[in-house]
Amino acid sequence: MSSTTQRRASLILHRMRAMLLGGVVMIAAGCASPHDDGTTLTFWTIGREGEAVVKLLPEFERLHPGVHVKVQQLPMTAAHQKLLTAFAGSSTPDLSQLGNTWLPEFAALNALEPLQPRVDRSAVVKQGDYFANIWATSVIDGKLVGVPWYVDTRLIFYRADLLKATGFNAPPRDWNEWRKALAALSKPQDGIYGILLPTNEYEQLMSLALQQPEPMLRDGGRYGNFRSEGFKRALSFYVDTFRLHQAPPITNVEAGNPWDEFGRGVYAFYFSGPWNIGEFRKRLPATEQDDWATAPLPGPDGAGVGAAGGSSLVIFRQSEHKDEAWTLIEYLSRPDVQQRFYELLGDMPARRSAWDGDGLRNDPKVLAFREQLEHVKPTPPVPEWEQIANEMQLVAAQAVAGTLSIDEAAAEMDRRADRILEKRRWILDHERHAAGAAP
Amino acid sequence: MNPQRAAWWFLTPALLVLAVFFLLPVIAALGLSLTDYDLYALADIRHLRFVALGNYWDLLHQSAFWSALGHTFYFVLAGVPLSIMVSLGSALLLNSPLARCKPFFRTALFAPVVTTVAAVALVWRYIFNTKYGMANYVLGAVGIHPVDWLGDPHWAMPTIILFAVWKNFGYNMIIFLAGLQAIPGDLYEAAHIDGASPLQQFRHITLPMLAPTLLMVSILTVSGYFQLFAEPYVMTEGGPLQSTTSVLYLMYNEGFKWWNFGTASAVAFLLFVIMFAVTALMLRVARRGAAA
Q1: Which of A144, A148, B14, B40 could share a disulfide with B47, CB 3.0–4.6 Å?
Q2: Which fold has domain A155-307+381-425?
Q3: The predicted structure's pLDDT at residue A41
Q4: Residue ranges in chain B whose pLDDT is less than 50
């Protein structure tokens, strides 16, 4: 029996050894193997993007003879682990897609090539053309480490026909109106709710919290700031939605098929991201396509901000083909290529000029996103953010279940965040001492 | 060359392999559990701190660890007896002289063991779906209100136990079947002549004769069930409200999700100590029972 336990216990060790000793093998397998003539770029994509990007590459290879791009598609669930393992084993690709919330982590690892000098020289990548706060997510500690590729923010999908039938001719613009609409549209005794907020997704509460003046972490990301008035206001609004039975307290695992239920009017609002435009178009019958619409997030008092999500393109420091990797980033950043990318996949372009294409400009369902993207805020730029956001949601779910009050939940979130940030505080203080000691 | 030295020479290759691939990693993991190896240490080894038993101390003061341990014990205490009863019951049925089509049933009942957890979880998630699932449909037919199997924190673990028992009972069933077939038939004949009822036969012949098998099966099952991970990973992702987060799930999250390898190693060693203690206790109780 002990052998099985210890086998599990040594699982970590196997990984560690693979990382440390196997690095040489991985370099040989991953980076080398050059094309017959010229350079081979290794490009890692995460999730669905890989399928679309391979359709854009023949054109790039035609424009740049001698550069061959090898795309590796990582599944969403394994990507983070694979990227970290690759870093530990010195087998990172030349360039990769990287989620905006992961950028601080890889910047802390010093794994990413600073890109500002290349942007300064570039005729294609122009900072002014990008949504300002989307660009800001790629700037970590004053250094630009990525170029925004596509954007993602959560806003509201709503059933315009149901809202109209209850007397709301426009989507809500602030929390007050939103609450009224939710109350009018919820009939919990019939299993009908105003909105679906899966209790195991942190993005919704996080978006509401970003609308507050106080940041969620204070003192340069040293401590949690969840006990601020602003956060408590966001948490109260979130929790009240459940307590008033305007949202069912279920996770996205149980929600099963939310698209179908949205179509049947089980939920009048759905708090989600751009990929669902495609899902709703695909899954709902043609006759129901005029019934739903999108709107920017309502804020506490007036139009609210959303979370600056999406992915950037990064070059790894270890790459031996940084110039070629940059030409690929420039190619993928061209407005016309971004438009084709949108047509292939529905991923929204990060730069404004790409939104002038017909596909985007004339689509009423995406206009709300265009509007929202001018009003987004980045998440706290610390490597621990995703873990903190997870803990925040776990505590929030307890508040939804009624086992914690708002004040207790906020205090618990701070306690957990402070514990997670302990190492960061130590390192920041350590570095300050080291800097102070140096002449 | 004396025989003892020759024996050592023969053992050396196996011992070397064990040392390199088993002992060394375990010692390294133990070392790792005394540090705060994490993302920052990966970036710069100077950020690695020796924390002695700090990881263990922190874990013992974390409600998340205790609740994960509680869920694991819940799973073991409810799952192991249930699993063994189902295995023994089906083995008895298969071993009965009245049973027909034995090879078919033996294969059919063993089939869940060789299926992939991720694949069958998909099917079971549909069965346990609150609105459209078969489980609630059947309950509804006899007038019982629908149960939120995977969404209600009180029901999620029983559902996971049900799933795990279904998935695993076939393996023990085969072992029990072998054990049953090894019991000499004349014992039953003699008992029959003495007028013992089937229940008495089971109580006084089958159970005592199966005792060694039963002990082995329960130790294997207990240690297997302590390592609960795949079932909640594919069915509930540890939720709802973390009600299905096991100790191993906690280790996975710490290590592979958040890259806190120091803490993850400490979790692994704590689980090892607990399992070691529990199985040692089981062996001791069994030995005392055999001596009595």
Answers
A1: B40
A2: D-Maltodextrin-Binding Protein; domain 2 (3.40.190)
A3: 94
A4: none
Q: What angle do CA A55, A56, A60 make, to 5 degrees?
A: 130
pLDDT at position B1 is 65
Looking at residue B2, its pLDDT comes to 83
CA–CA separation, A156 and A268 (whole Å): 10
Q: Supply A381's token pair.
A: 């730029």
- Give dist(CA B282, CA B218) in Å, integer: 9
pLDDT-flagged residues of chain A (< 50): 1-13, 15-35, 438-439
Ordered by start, the domain boundaries in chain A are 2-152+308-373, 155-307+381-425
Sign of CA dihedral B37, B33, B227, A20: positive
User: Model confidence over A232-274: pLDDT tens digits?
Assistant: 999 999 999 999 999 998 887 777 688 988 999 999 999 999 9
- Find out if CATH 3.30.450.190 is the number for domain B49-291: no
The CATH code that applies to domain A2-152+308-373 is 3.40.190.10
Report the SS3 class of residue A125.
coil
Q: What is the Cα–Cα distance from A267 to A246, expressed in whole angstroms?
A: 9
Residue B150 has what pLDDT? 85
pLDDT of res. A13: 45
Contact B187, B104 (CB under 8 A): no
* Chain B residue whose CA is closest to A17: B25
Gap from B6 CA to chain A (nearest CA, Å): 27
Contacting A residues, span 187-226, partner chain B, CB-CB under 8 Å: 199-200
Residue A303 token pair: 């139009």
Per-residue model confidence (pLDDT) at position A380: 94
CB contact under 8 A, B29 and A13: yes
Residue A70 φ then ψ, to 5°: -105, 115
Residues of B whose CB is below 8 A from A84: 39, 42, 259
Residue A36 has a pLDDT of 52
Q: Domain ranges in chain B?
A: 49-291
C-alpha to C-alpha distance for B49 and A200, rounded to whole angstroms:
33
Radius of gyration, CA atoms only, chain B? 24
